[in-house]
Amino acid sequence: MPFRTRSVVALLLAWLALVSHSQAQQVSTLVPNINASGGVSVGPDGNIYVADFGQFLSNANGTTVYRVTPQGQVSVFATGFNGASGNVFDTNGNMLQANIAGGRIDSIAPNGTVSTIASSGFTSPVGVAIDSGGNTFVANCGGGGSISRIQGGVGVPFVSGAPLNCPNGLTIDPDDNLYTANFNDGNIVRITPGGAMSILATTPNSSFRPSGGNGHITYGNGRLYVVGNASAQIFELTLDGQLTLIAGNGTRGHDDGPALQASFSSPNGISLSADGRFLYVNEAASTSGTVLVAPSFPLNPSLVRVIDLGQQFSINVGINGAWADATTPGQGMFFDVLASLGLFFMGWFTYETNQDFVPVIDDRGRRWLVALGPINGNVVNLELLVAEGGQFDQADPVTETPVGSAVLTFASCTEATFEYQLDNGLSGTIPLTRLLPDVYCALLNQGGS
Question: Which CATH superfamily is domain 22-308 in?
Answer without folding.
Answer: TolB, C-terminal domain (2.120.10.30)
